[in-house]
Amino acid sequence: MTQVDTARTGPEDTGRHDSRDRRDSRAGREGWRGMLRAASRPGPWRRGGVLAALAVLLGLTLLLHARITDRAGLGSLVESFLPWTGLFVPVLLIGALWRRSASAAGALLLPVVVWLHLFGGLLGDRSGPAGPTDLTVAEHNVAAGNSDPAGTARSLAGSGADVLALVELTDEDLGTYEKGLAAAYPHHTVLGTVGLWSKLPLSGTRPLDITNHGPLAATRPAGETWSSLRALRTTVATDRGPLAVYVAHLGSVRLMPRGGFWTDSRDRDARALAEALAAERNERVVLLGDLNGTTDDGALDGITSRLGSSWTEAGDGFGFTWPAAFPVARIDHILVRGVRTERSWVLPATGSDHLPVAAGLRW
Q: Where does the record place the Endonuclease/exonuclease/phosphatase domain (predicted)?
């Protein structure tokens, strides 16, 4: 007969069982709580909602910039600095990586694609092969407060341009430019604050019917109109036929203490200039000037729809021209019709707060 020993349970054994049960119960509760916390924690596609919304807003701003209201000049302000919106992309990307947000990272595809569509073509060198061109033209806002007009004249005389347009000329400095440019340019014409110097004969020079009103209008001399001071049209005689050349300095853009970004004067000038270009019968046209706006600015559509940008066609990079110390926008332009731009470039800085621009043209 086999004897089976029966385990005896004492007070100590009961205490150990109770302690183990409590630990098991506590672990179970903590496990469930951990699972609930994990389930309630947002996943990578649910995190970073604000960052994703900002990325979409940036993309829509780029995509629909032409529809932004121009009340208080908002549309012009955004479009003038539109290329710089690309700087928000790496900032938002860093935020998305920090938040580990897949939704924010995915939303960035919209602004990246639209920005590349708008400006990707400007990142490289679009100029043609080096070689002679039929005509080289240049434009410079020499600035009324130029610190070295004589040096500016010497620099421009050595630029190699056949046709040179200057805007924002003053009575005090005009003689300096005429003297400094006389040897290189036997022909020139000046109307008010704009002028054209040329190695080729000029004819038919006339002021453009561009009016300018607003806070700067009070600075014009008595009896003068802004049409004679700010824009002209002339004909350059080339061996390929006549070339219509427009020189223009559109109204200034100002950040007003009241009223926001003030563009009324510039916009009126742009409309008047667009009308003059629409009436131009010469098939070959060049516009040289400070338009106080970029080619992305919808206020200049009447002009840019009729003339193409030499920089967009054959420049290198963005070609910002203002302010000269740290250029952030290209508001100085060479726009053409009926001729092809082989090369377009920005000239070295002078005593002006603008950089000069040049382009080599071919028929």
A: 140-354
pLDDT-based confidence at residue 223 (cuts at 50, 70, 90): very low
- CA pair distance 95, 278, nearest whole angstrom: 49
pLDDT at 138 over 70: yes
Local confidence band at 176 (pLDDT 50, 70, 90 cut-offs): very high
Pseudo-torsion of CA 116, 120, 121, 122, nearest 10°?
A: 140
In tens, the pLDDT along 238-251 reads 999 999 999 999 99
Report pTM.
0.83
Integer angstrom CA distances of residue 118 from 64, 84, 197, 305, 336: 12, 12, 35, 16, 21
Query: Domains (ranges, CATH) in the chain?
Result: 49-122 (no CATH), 135-362 (3.60.10.10)
- Cβ burial of 142 (10 Å; 0-12, 13-18, 19+) is buried
CA–CA distance, 314 with 122 (Å, rounded to integer): 9
pLDDT at 253: 86
In this structure, what token pair is assigned to residue 131?
């070689």
Condensed to tens digits (0 to 9), the pLDDT of residues 301-326 reads 999 999 999 999 999 999 999 999 99
Q: Is the peptide bond before 257 cis (omega within 30 degrees of 0)?
A: no
- Return the closest-CA partner of residue 205 out of 240, 184, 232, 186: 232
Distance CA 123, CA 317 (A): 5
CA angle, corner 333, sides to 225 and 168, nearest 5?
35
Q: How many CB atoms lie within 10 A of CB 308?
A: 18
Contacts of 82 (CB under 8 A, 6+ apart): 62, 65, 118, 119, 294, 296
pLDDT of residue 72: 78
